[in-house]
Structure formats: structure tokens, C-alpha cells
Amino acid sequence: MSDARATWIAADPASVHILEIGEKLADAATTLLITGESGSGKDQLARWIHERGSRRDAPLLKIDCASLPAELVESELFGHERGAFTGAVARKPGRLEMAQGGTIVLDEIAALGPGLQAKLLRVLEERTFERLGGTETLRMDSRLMALTNTDLGQAVATGRFREDLFFRLNVLALVVPPLRERRGDIAALAAHFVARLGPVHGRADASLAPEAVKLLESYDWPGNVRELKNAIEHALVFAKTWQLDIADFPEILRAAGRPSAAAGALRSLEEIEREAIKATLEATRYKIGQAAEVLGISRKTLLEKRKKYGLM
Ligand SMILES: Nc1ncnc2c1ncn2[C@@H]1O[C@H](COP(=O)(O)OP(=O)(O)OP(=O)(O)O)[C@@H](O)[C@H]1O
Ligand SMILES: [Mg+2]
Q1: From the first residue on, what is the mean pLDDT of each consecutive set of 10 residues in the chain (312 residues)?
Q2: Cα angle: 199, vertex 200, 204; to 5 degrees
Q3: Which of these CATH numbers, 1.10.10.60, 1.20.1090.10, 1.20.58.340, 3.30.365.10, describes 267-308?
Q4: What fold does the segment set 13-177 form as a domain?
Q5: Which atom of ligand 1 sits closest to the CA of residue 41?
Q6: Cα(41) to centroid of ligand 1, in Å?
Q7: Ligand 1 pocket, 8 CB below 6 A?
Q8: 2, 122, 229, 231: which has the fewest Cβ within 10 Å?
Q9: Residue nearest atom 25 in ligand 1 by C-alpha distance
């Protein structure tokens, strides 16, 4: 979430649809659940929605539930009083308190342990909370956005996530499809990253060769938009001219773009026949008698096939 103002590039109908819904949800007070594969743009979308709503001038604060230890997630969220635990030398407000009127983003909510799941459910139901070790009851008037790249329904089914909390979070939900399912975005995103990152790499004039765009559009992007952004950055660093070409992109992309040996061998008999006739005609400088002899067919058959394959 490094952009000063979040743009959400959308060219594919699937993304345009997400923006339309996002716009409608921007002012809702209800918790929003954003699901999507890693790198698909959940953070970016959360910020975009925050900035569309009336909370835009209040802070957007984020807690990454997957990378912080459970105790830290808890104190980051609720804050603590002095002496609440060893090392709590002073009172510290939590994100819930600091974001008053703004948005709290809980990233990778599926990683929340059972204790915190219960606490969060209570906060969402009562809209009140206390600092750790404290007795003062504080009101929550920020909006919660929960992000996850795992299937929460599945986590409920296997007992890893509370069903009641899931229902609470799932009232408003947005699914960001993987990039390979909205290929219409690829060219627009690529152009956006070239324009934004070009100047950073001394290539303010950079643009994409049409074949490079085709390569980008044919790749599956397991790392989604983040991988696309990194690929553009790679190409900007390696580009020899202002035009980013296939050769400038990471090998993994170029390898995926190359037809494999097996796929290359899969041609129809007609294609093979056409190629054989074409090559023989060229080799014999279009001497029909000689070419027919080499191919082992009659002059009449060769003339028919020449016509059929448009080899005049
Ligand atoms: N539609 C978009 N328009 C412009 N930039 C985008 C878009 N979607 C994603 N990005 C950019 O792609 C990168 C990855 O997006 P983001 O961090 O939002 O993904 P994520 O879904 O939160 O990934 P993770 O699950 O790994 O946290 C970021 O640099 C973000 O700015
Ligand atoms: Mg993220």
C-alpha cells in the first residue's frame, strides 16, 4: 500500500464490476471481507474503497495477522495499559482506538487464533472493547475490512475458523479473481506499471512492444498482479532500448510463451502435407513434374493439392 492515492486499474469486465460494487460499499459501516489469491490486489482494493468513502480523511490502519505472534496482534488491535504484561511500560493505544472514524484492515484473517477470533466477534457485536489490562470501555467506530487468500468457508468446515465470526465477516464480501481469469486487465495493468515505474528506472519514455503485450497476455500469472509488476520492473532494468521487448522479460515468462516440443509436434496431417508440398515446390523451383516425382504422387494430384492449399 505504497501509493499516495490508490488507483485500481480495471479494464476487464470482471474488474469493472468489482469497482462498481466497491463504490457502492464505500460508505457502508458494515464489515467487508475481501478474498483473493496472493498478489491479486486485496490491499489495493481495500485502500481504494476506503478512499472512496466518507472515511477517507481518517486513517486506514493495518494489522497483518499472519506475520505477527498472537499476543502482538491482540495488543496492536486493542492497545494496552501500563503493566498489562511484562514490557508494557506505558499505556499504548491500539489500532482500534487510533483508527477512530477510519478503517482497520485485518490482513490474512484466517491466521487469527481461536482466542482472538472470540474477542473479535465480541467487538463486532458490541462495538466496544477494552485495552489489555484496562477496565475503561471504548467505542469502536471504525470500519473493519478483513482480507484473506484462503477459503474461509473451508476453514470453517475444517474447524479452524469460527462459523459465527465467518457469518459476521461475510455480510459484505468481494472476491478478487486471479489475474488469469481477467486477462482483459493485463495490458492496462502492464501499461500502468510501465508509466509508473519507468521514470524510477531512468526509462520515462518506455513502452511495450506489441509482441511483449501478447506474451504477457498469454501467461498464467500464478503470482497475479504482484508478479506482473515485478516482471515489468525486471524488463525496465534489462531493456536495451525504450521499447520493452520479449527478450527483456524474465525467462520463466518467455519459457511459458514458447510452444513446448510436444505441443509443436501436434499438427494435423493436412498441415504436414501442406508444408511438405510447399517445401518441395520451392526446392524444385515449382517444376511440377519433378516435385510430383519427389513426393510420389501424380502431376494431377499435385496440381489439385497445390490449389487446395493455395500454393500458387
Ligand atoms: N487493480 C490494480 N491496479 C493497480 N495496481 C494494482 C492492482 N491490483 C494490484 N495492484 C498492485 O499489485 C501489487 C499487489 O497487490 P496487493 O498487495 O493489493 O495484493 P494482495 O492481494 O493484498 O496480496 P497478498 O495476499 O500477498 O497480500 C501491489 O503493488 C498493488 O499496488
Ligand atoms: Mg495483501
Answers
A1: 74 96 94 97 97 94 93 94 91 93 96 95 95 95 95 94 96 96 98 97 95 96 97 95 95 80 60 85 87 89 89 79
A2: 15
A3: 1.10.10.60
A4: Rossmann fold (3.40.50)
A5: 18
A6: 3
A7: yes
A8: 2
A9: 38
Topology, domain 182-262? Helicase, Ruva Protein; domain 3 (1.10.8)
Say which residues have a Cβ less than 8 Å from residue 163's Cβ, sequence separation at least 6: 156
What does the radius of gyration of the chain's CA atoms come to, in whole angstroms?
Answer: 29
Residue 187, SS3 per DSSP: helix
Grid coordinates of 297 = 504422387
Rounded distance between C-alpha atoms, residue 89 and residue 83, angstroms: 6
Q: Is 41 in the pocket of ligand 1 (CB under 6 A)?
A: yes
Residue nearest to atom 23 of ligand 1 (CA): 39
Ligand 1 pocket check for 124: Cβ under 6 Å: no
Is the pTM of the predicted complex or chain greater than 0.70? Answer: yes
* Domain ranges for the chain: 13-177, 182-262, 267-308
Instruction: Give the mutation target among 16, 34, 43 for probing the ligand 1 site: most ligand atoms within 8 A of CB.
Output: 43
